[in-house]
Amino acid sequence: MASEPRPDVSVEANANANATDSEPLLSVRDLTVTFPTPEGPVRAVDRLSFDVGRGRTLGIVGESGSGKSVTSMAVMGLHTGAEVTGSVTLDGTELTGLAERELNRLRGRRMAMVFQDPLSSLHPYYTVGEQIAEHHRVHFGSRRAAARRRAVEMLAEVGIPEAARRAGEYPHQFSGGMRQRVMIAMALACEPDLLLADEPTTALDVTVQAQILELIARIQQERSLAVVLITHDLGVVARVAHEVLVMYGGLAAEQAPVETLFAAPAHPYTRGLLDSLPRLDDTDDVPLRAIPGSPPSLLTPAPGCAFAPRCPRAAAADTDTRERCTRLRPRLTRSGDHAVACHLPLGKATP
Ligand SMILES: Nc1ncnc2c1ncn2[C@@H]1O[C@H](COP(=O)(O)OP(=O)(O)OP(=O)(O)O)[C@@H](O)[C@H]1O
Ligand code: SF4
Ligand SMILES: [Mg+2]
After folding, report:
1. d(CA 244, CA 112)
2. Distance 68 CA to ligand 3 centre (A)
3. Which residues contact 243 (CB under 8 A, 6 or more apart)?
């Protein structure tokens, strides 16, 4: 392991981690989401388990289609028409199977979500101040003037200059980065305990992306928020996450504290993601590295390891191991706070 090159990513997370309660705020156990489709059932998330404590950030990473958004929507109870099994508890309250009315009360108030595209979540005909104030009024029953004051306070807190004036403007009058700040203000207006952020910075340029990530990290620290940050970018995870869940084909491939994941990744897929990060010594004409091959079919999943057709580790192994990889699905095996689903994790000699 030690001889394998590491990408040039500095892991800053945990340096300023808050003290956490011993009980996780969010606890997900064996979460499985299956969509009925004309071609057959699609299992988009398969027996996923994770915890997020107060003041902690869990980064969920994986390629497109790996089940990141489906997971976050399932936590929020937003899947209609899908079969959702397993358990999701927020501060001890079981959310799966909860009546829609109860879920509505919790959404926004105890848990909130920020999406990649703020325009899809903001109403074009209302000012941003009205929208944040309305959100506050619905959940706290506050009077209009108080809700409006709170909206301006929130816009100021997320770094929008001249917040009182800008509260009277419409979403289209804001830049992409500022709109994302408005979404964060709206999500945090009701002081939730849990924030789910689904690719909140993907559409933004690098500088604005860094500002938004810093904003989320600051607010998280100040409020001891539990954060689930979904991204396909391990560089983003390195900046802000404390723990990381790597998903592949709807399954957990690897789970570890961020430092462990970057220093000693155990799953060949994680290794591939790390290797595809740009390096400091790259010259301009080096093409972006990508993991060869395509993501697995969720409609007709292979019996063995979902990563087997793309796995360089299996390709280099002996025939028996290769056969095991293609026939037998690896179980997620935990050693302390590091879990990996692989028959031949990195760090073990290749037969
Ligand atoms: N409504 C649906 N009906 C059927 N299948 C669905 C539905 N929603 C999601 N899926 C399946 O679940 C898979 C995972 O989707 P998801 O949106 O969670 O991916 P993701 O990891 O968030 O990807 P991206 O990085 O592109 O956002 C999809 O590839 C698709 O096969
Ligand atoms: S189980 Fe086999 S195919 Fe899957 S990641 Fe591990 S070595 Fe590769
Ligand atoms: Mg997604």
Report:
1. 20
2. 6
3. 50, 52, 56, 57, 58, 59, 255, 256, 257, 258, 337
> Which residues are bridge partners to 254 per DSSP?
246, 340
- d(CA 156, CA 169) in angstroms, rounded, equals 14
Residue 242 identity? H
* Residues of each domain in the chain carrying CATH 3.40.50.300: 1-110+192-280+290-303
The answer to whether the CB of 68 is under 6 A from ligand 1 is yes
DSSP symbols for 156-193:
HHTT-SSHHHHTTS-GGGS-HHHHHHHHHHHHHTT--S
Pocket mutation for ligand 1, best pick of 31, 35, 75 (most atoms within 8 Å of C-beta): 35
> What is the full per-residue pLDDT of the chain (351 aa) written as tens digits?
333 333 333 333 333 343 344 689 999 999 999 999 999 999 999 999 999 999 999 999 999 999 999 999 999 998 878 999 999 999 999 999 898 888 988 887 899 999 877 777 889 999 999 999 998 888 888 899 999 999 999 999 888 999 999 999 999 999 988 898 999 999 888 889 999 999 988 877 888 888 888 888 888 888 899 999 999 888 889 989 999 999 999 999 999 999 999 999 999 999 999 988 776 666 666 555 678 888 998 988 889 999 999 999 999 999 999 999 999 999 999 999 999 999 999 986 656
CATH topology of domain 1-110+192-280+290-303: Rossmann fold (3.40.50)
CA dist 71 and 250 (Å) reads 9
- CA separation for the pair 189, 206 (Å, rounded): 26
